[in-house]
Design brief:
Elements lengths: L15 H4 L2 H9 L17 H10 L11 E2 L37 H15 L12 E4 L2 H11 L3 E7 L4 H8 L3 E7 L10 H9 L2 E7 L13 H9 L4 E5 L30 E6 L12 E4 L2 H14 L5 H7 L5 H29 L12 E5 L10 H10 L2 E2 L1 E2 L21 E5 L4 H16 L1
Parallel strand pairs: 1-10, 3-4, 3-5, 5-6, 6-7
Antiparallel strand pairs: 2-8, 7-8, 9-12, 11-12
Length: 447
């Protein structure tokens, strides 16, 4: 397919490096609207990290994953090798009760344990406390987001760019709200200021969705600014806070403190704040698919009910096995071990990247991601897709930044995207994989 006759934006055409790039042609073809099968929307078949993995499989990743460095993965290392971390179960008991269908909002003992954890870590001394009725257990973060989307009313929903790739699909599946993008400034470290929230509400936005800490930039909105944002939204807008990386917080000297909007809620049944988290990231159990949503009882009742027609609920034996992991002191000690270990890995990766010649403008203070600026590299590799292509040749996976320029329903042209010259690099994997991946990146740049 030739792209030489098509303009991809009003401001510039594709560069020669893009026109001659196989990976750019593949990306564009995937977004052309081609329909090889009746009834199939092919754009749903391959998105974000999945698209990157499919390209890596073409280079042999699926056959020999152990010889690759997957720095694109959105998951932390899952082994029991982190000093101070509790051992994960290697087997679980399956009760007779767990053979039956479970409640679509989750089993009550786990909901009680989650409420107790948040009260202990974020609601001490406050009159308003979470109960089990403020918690819905969901089969993973994406399922939780889909459930939330299903219960929203007709409204403008504001989201920020860049942000988590899966929001793109969630925001385009439903027609009960209109998704409105709001780009953040690179010069400002992609920070969400309270003034930004005021602007969003002033233009009619009544739902705001964001990750915090933020994927992919690795930045966090902490108190007092987070409290200011919640004060601005109170009685005016519903806040959907994706807090999966709340434990990966390096702003408080790795003392175990978890970032959460739960600290600033005045009334758990009146403040329209929905918090989503789970075992996936901070408990390093992505394969368990156990996550949760906290919010006002009326929201949670609707979110629990819609699980009956969306996903059927969360695996009951794994819910039962999760309960003892959520004892508050155990979790606090786990977060200290997690933060110490991942900050060490962050510092190693940043040091290596600077030695290779990258300029790190915004040091990540949370998550396990680096939003890596490629603009200082030679033209052939200074955009995310071409750099990704070269990484595949070295058996390294990263995620091109363009996937984080969320574009629900593909209403905007992305080829002038402010995310085009970035990749997301994960330091979630074990240290030997990080070293191997950085060695590969160094070879690319030295060439």
């Amino acid at each position: 397919m030739s792209f030489s006759g098509r303009r991809f934006s009003t401001s510039k055409g594709p560069s020669s490096a893009e026109l001659n790039s196989k990976i750019h042609r593949q990306f564009r073809s995937a977004h052309e609207g081609h329909r090889p099968h009746a009834g199939l929307d092919p754009s749903r078949a391959s998105t974000g990290v999945v698209w990157c993995t499919e390209r890596a499989n073409e280079y042999g990743f699926q056959d020999e994953p152990g010889s690759w460095a997957n720095l694109g993965q959105g998951a932390p290392e899952a082994d029991d090798d982190i000093e101070g971390s509790f051992k994960r179960p290697t087997q679980i008991d399956i009760s007779v009760n767990s053979r039956e269908y479970g409640p679509t909002a989750g089993i009550k003992p786990l909901r009680v344990a989650i409420a107790n954890l948040y009260n202990a870590h974020h609601r001490k001394g406050k009159d308003s406390q979470y109960t089990w009725e403020n918690v819905a257990v969901v089969p993973g973060g994406r399922a939780g987001l889909i459930r939330i989307a299903a219960v929203l009313n007709n409204a403008y929903l504001g989201f920020f760019i860049p942000d988590y790739t899966a929001y793109n699909e969630m925001l385009s599946l439903f027609r009960n709200f209109a998704a409105i993008p709001s780009p953040l400034s690179e010069e400002d470290g992609y920070h969400i200021h309270p003034d930004k929230i005021t602007e969003e509400i002033a233009r009619g936005t009544s739902i705001i969705l964001t990750s915090n800490p933020r994927n992919p930039t690795g930045q966090v909105v902490a108190n007092p600014e987070l409290a200011q944002i919640q004060d601005i939204c109170r009685d005016r807008a519903t806040l959907i806070m994706d807090e999966f990386y709340g434990g990966y917080n390096y702003t408080s000297n790795c003392d175990g403190t978890t970032v959460s909007a739960a600290d600033n809620i005045q009334d758990v049944d009146e403040d329209d704040v929905l918090i989503i988290d789970g075992l996936t990231k901070r408990f390093r159990l992505p394969g368990w698919r156990v996550a949760w949503i906290l919010g006002p009882k009326e929201f949670i009742k609707a979110i629990g009910s819609c699980g009956s027609y969306l996903d059927g609920g969360t695996n009951v034996p794994f819910q039962e096995a999760a309960i003892p992991m959520l004892e508050p002191n155990k979790v606090f000690n786990e977060m200290k071990a997690l933060q110490t270990h991942f900050k060490m890995k962050r510092d190693y990766v940043l040091g290596r990247l600077e030695d290779i010649g990258f300029k790190i403008k915004n040091v990540p203070d949370s998550t396990f991601y680096i939003w890596l600026d490629l603009s200082g590299l030679p033209t052939e590799i200074n955009d995310g897709l071409n750099f990704f292509q070269k990484c595949l040749e070295e058996k390294v996976i990263v995620v091109p930044g363009i996937f984080f320029d969320l574009n629900p329903a593909k209403r905007r042209d992305l080829f002038d995207s402010p995310c085009h010259h970035f990749v997301r690099l994960s330091y979630g994997p074990k240290m030997e994989h990080l070293t191997r991946g950085l060695d590969g990146i160094e070879r690319i740049v030295r060439k």
